[in-house]
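Check this.
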Amino acid sequence: MALSQSALRAPSLPGEAAHGTAPELDGLVAIGITVQATPGQTIVLEGDPCSHCFRVLTGAVRLYKGTADGRRQLIDFLVAGDCFGLLGAHYTYGVEAITHTTLSKTPRASLAAAVRERPAVADRLIELAAAELARAHDQMLLLGPKNAQEKVASLLLDLARRSGAQGARPAFRMPISRQEMADHLGLTIETVSRTMTRFKEDGLIALPTPHDVVLLNPTDLAALAEGAA
């Protein structure tokens, strides 16, 4: 199913600040379009030419790679403010909407032209590409030596940060399911559920609903994520 396109101008370029336009990107918002994706809808296929870059405006998407035996491995998920498609000649992963998702879709050729006209834009795009690489490095760490509690704590802190949750007890809505958490962390869903329950019993988090999380003690949770607790 093709992505639906809005007739309106895209509200932002990939990587534009969530609460305002970065100065070096002012005036460039018209070069992209807004597209909509329904839950489970494919946005890009692994191996396709990387002709566009995307920024998630609302909702969440999953990035996955296919294996030789036909299975799929979840490698990352992106929420509002995150970008993909800034690097490489081909998409090295498939992208699929988790929830109803709105994205800004910008031709890479248009961005290249903008860089030639306004060199300051290049610095911003380099920052965005570096963030894409940093997420890949963080995922390698999550799948490496950390134990289950450290992995789940790291993910909850990352979700809170990326959702913009603030305050002494940041609260946010989970953009992914327990199964997707497990796939992302290389754990079983049972292990993720037990770990979340333990965090709740230990007073680290509250779970007002199955989809909402409150970090009651972010400091101790951060220490646990780093193996210091």
